[in-house]
Predict the 3D structure of the following.
Amino acid sequence: MRLLHTSDWHLGRQFHGVSLLDEQALAMDRLVELAAEAAVDLVVIAGDLYDRAIPPADAVRLFTDTLARLRAGGVAVVAIAGNHDSHVRVSVYDELLAAQGVTIRGRWQRAAEPVLVSPRDGGAPVAVYPLPYLEPLLEGPALLAAEASALAATPTAGRIDHQRAMELALLPVRADLARRPGLRSVLVAHAFVAGGRSSESERDLTVGNAEAVAVPTFDGFDYVALGHLHGAQQLGGPRLAYSGTPLPYSFSEQDHVKSVRLVELDPQGNPAVEVVPLGVGRPLRTLEGPLEELLRDPRLEDARGAWVRALLSDEQLPRQAMTRLRQRFPHAVELRHQPPHRLQASGSERSQRILQAADPLQRTLAFFADQQGRPVDPDEERLLRQALAQAAARRP
């Protein structure tokens, strides 16, 4: 049994205001090619199919076209809703599509209804359990009620966290699997598993550590295809892993190797994994230094075709810095001014100095000097005084 594990497509996403749909289309082309080259039996997509609950029409077309091409190649598809997706919208045609070899699950209540996928070359089928993203605040009461119904007990009061929600959702899944002795199993889930490395582009599931789910929670399955974290990684061995996104979605991912996981389950359910880089999309580069150096340095010529973030170390922010930067690096999308004096003190230390200023004007002048790396000139101070006076006059 061979499967391709991918996740977090985020179709329709923008990168600093620029559409990524063309790059995402290239990623989908490569994924379809890999599925055919590897003769996989199944593609699993572990959530965040789209970047938002109501995706743009072009993103929907790209998604449906990709699924159609996979099915044309004889590949079964199992997908789940992630925390960016509308559980209802993405799975509205699940019952109809399932008859055609495509399963898109949005309701955790159906997680115990496995998709039985038979290998092309014969052999016993594999039970694939699609478990969509769980929102404890919204779904906790229903999860507790379902447990109480199964155990003839009174549901526990209070809000549950992601750990408890996952445990409850897996109870009927484990019960179904226990009725299928000897059957190999794959769980598809969307969650933050403790020990995983996160990125800036992921939407936090909750505050603090309440979103973390422990690795042992997923014991008993031959392979667990995870989604949510954008960097490819495995936890405690090849059996439990994130495939990561097909493209980088923030500069925190510029060193990621974007890939998919090809997984082969032997007759006993042991997974052999190959991580295959996709090799598509525009690279990301972070450039640091004074603006003039960045514009002249011949070693940066290879950054012309990359998404560029510039960290300028000029004492004063040069005029029209972004415009000049884009003359050499057309895909520059982010600029930060980090003069040496700001790097010498921590953000909290600088904030404390500003707050210690005696009155609103002094605080404003101190803030300006911190941000610009220089004191205000007379004209600027006059304008700031006028603005503060007008604001004070409007107060009731």
